[in-house]
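Throughout our pipeline, every protein is held as a single compact record rather than as scattered files. Such a record has a labelled line for the sequence and another for the backbone structure tokens. This encoding replaces a full spatial description with a residue-level series of whole-number codes. For reference, a complete record is included directly beneath this paragraph.
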Amino acid sequence: MNDLRALPSLACAGFASMAAMRMCDAMLPALGQSFGASPSDAAQTISAFALAYGVMQLVYGPLGDGFGKPRVVMGAACGAAVASLLSAFAPSVLLLSVGRAGMGACAAGIIPLTMAWVGDRVPYERRQQVLASLLTYTVLGLMLGAWAGGAIAQVSSWRVAFVLVASLFLLSALGVARAMRNEVASAERQVRAPYVRQVQALLRAPWARTVFAVVFLEGALVFGALAFIPTALHDRFHLSLVQAGGVVALFGVGGLVYSRLARRLVQALGAARLAMCGAISLSLALATLAAMPTAAFALPACFLAGAGFYMLHNTLQNCATQLSTTARGTGVSLFACALFLGQSSGVTAAAIVADRLSTTAWFALASPLLLALGIAFAWRLWVQDAGHRVAA
């Protein structure tokens, strides 16, 4: 395995980016009170980050391939730190939304380029284990960002949360700079085709199209369901939104448990069977949520859904890092873009289903679709890996 001294700092930058993404979720009431803004106006701070984060995925791939992935991550983390500090002193909700868009635009390149960097340095057969350790940081960032944003806003000021996130971004950038200071500046630069040709080459490859399609559908089905679990618990069993949010947090706990067991699971099952187990777990979890007679059934279901999602998604991440060895950053960025578009489409579709049928109808629909998706992908992955073994 090649030198991975920069990985802890890159992972910390990924933690900061995920914490920044979710930090406004629980502080919306505080933002509305601070600016005298309506809930919809305050929620623009969330959508502005997400929109910029998704659009900028297409920019960072060629930048990382051309100028070196850790260097671009350093610049992105520094930019996110500046945007976060500016957001901390925003005098209006409009300017705060602009600052959040800047945070999203900068943070967008951190995790995809870190994954691509791991792909450059870790052999394929060991890569999924390293990516799983990176998942620990990102899942913790998602969980703690949502919780800490509300907690800090309640005990102090929401502005303090932005200053703390800015500090995390800056410290991460300094850590990457220190780890990479002895590297040759041109080590990662190669003669590359223009960006449009790189994208066309990836989209012409059947396996790349398969991976992009699967992660799009995975994002749509899983995150469409995840968005409506609190509402379903509130409507059906009269849980408070705080209690329902705590139940959904078990999704992240399931992901953390998987990340700690990933090495053993990958070695014992292999990539195809691990993806299959993830899809089966997701299908069972969503079927349980659709039919649950009491709210207590949601506890193991959310945990199982989290573990299953990261089994499947971690396998997809590993595949994404191998789509192109000469334009790896572009391949992973397109993968992230497909996931983001899938999430957005899934939440929209799930909202339509909830309006016309019920909040749990999407769970019942997504359960068999995820099972079918997992079976198809696991078979295709097995064929792909078999072909590589024959070629070797």
Residues 224 and 351 are 8 Å apart (CA to CA). The chain has two domains: 1-182, 193-392. The chain has 16 helices and no strands.
